[in-house]
Amino acid sequence: MRRIAVLLLALVLVSPTPALAADNPVAMIFSPTAEVSVPVNQPLLVIGGAVNGESGGITQVEFSTDHGTNWTPVDARGERWSVRLFPSVSGPLTIHARARTASTTGPTTVSRTIHVGGSTVPPLEHETSLVLHDTHNPTIDDPDEQAVEVGLRFAVDRPGSIPAVIIKRGDHTGPVTARLWSNGTLLAEQEAPGAAHSQRITFGTTVPVVAGTEYVVSYYTPAGGYKATENYFVGNLAQTPFKIPVNAGVYSYSGGFPTDTWFGSNYGIEPVFRP
How far apart are CA 211 and CA 156, in angstroms? Predict the structure, then answer.
């Protein structure tokens, strides 16, 4: 018995133990997309994320606009962060980002170059949709139960068409009606059956759009129950080919062309663009 006990102890002593994973925080930038042009002296919304493998524990994200000479902490929530910049000098601007944990500062893991005051039109070969990434502000299922039209103001940087819209559903999972507008004129309308979570609604007619004109894509819900993120559109959002202005989220109770705004709210409405 003593020999067996000694052998077991030896196995315990020599058996390898898993090493604790080293922190390796990585920052990401989702918007603006690469090489887009943005206006001078207008607020720009920058949205990103940060991860640290399975360890998690992101404590802070920092960004730099002078190639890492100075770093500024940003508002973060879990693995999402956002910041509002005010680019004031025309020309290329490169945004760098890095992430921190309690034990280490990660390297500069991402950069994004944009053109302030420029007129660049980055290449786009395939159909794409606007992606409204989560920010540090919480998204809720709004308890509003009134009939309402919720929408998004947007423009595009090139001619193309809008074949569909993607909506992120709230508590109302019944039928809705999607619409596309220009200056209050209804361009397309499509009823859609009930669904849960996200839903793509394809218009019966693909609508041509031109660069620089403002459009509104919206959907009517007869019983409220939509998603909402307040203080989201606090700056311009530049995501090829979309140009999203400040206070882009709009609504209208009882339906019709939506023009009212509420604290820069995002209602989870993403137009689809076809070049």
Answer: 5
Those residues with Cβ within 8 angstroms of residue 166's Cβ, 6 or more apart along the chain or in another chain: 129, 198, 199, 200, 201, 269, 270, 271, 272
Give the bridge partners for 48, in sequence order: 29, 81
3-class DSSP state of 58: coil
* Contact in structure between 24 and 106 (CB atoms under 8 Å): yes
Boundary (domain end) residue, out of 62, 89, 116: 116
Distance CA 30, CA 133 (A): 7
Alpha helix positions (H), 149-210:
none
Q: Do 247 and 262 form a contact (C-beta atoms < 8 A)?
A: no
**pLDDT tens for residues 95-122?**
999 999 988 998 887 899 999 999 999 9
Is residue 5 within a helix (H) or strand (E), and if so which, with residue range?
helix 2-14
Query: For 25-80, what is each residue's pLDDT tens digit?
Result: 999 999 999 999 999 999 999 999 999 987 788 999 999 999 999 999 997 777 89
Q: What is the DSSP letter of 54?
A: B
Give the end of a domain, one of 78, 95, 116.
Answer: 116
For residue 171, what are the domain limits? 128-274
* Confidence label for 2 from pLDDT (cuts 50, 70 and 90): very low
User: Is 255 part of any domain?
Assistant: yes
Q: Is-cis flag, bond preceding 245, omega within 30?
A: no
Site of tokens 């004109």: 213
What pTM did the predictor assign? 0.88
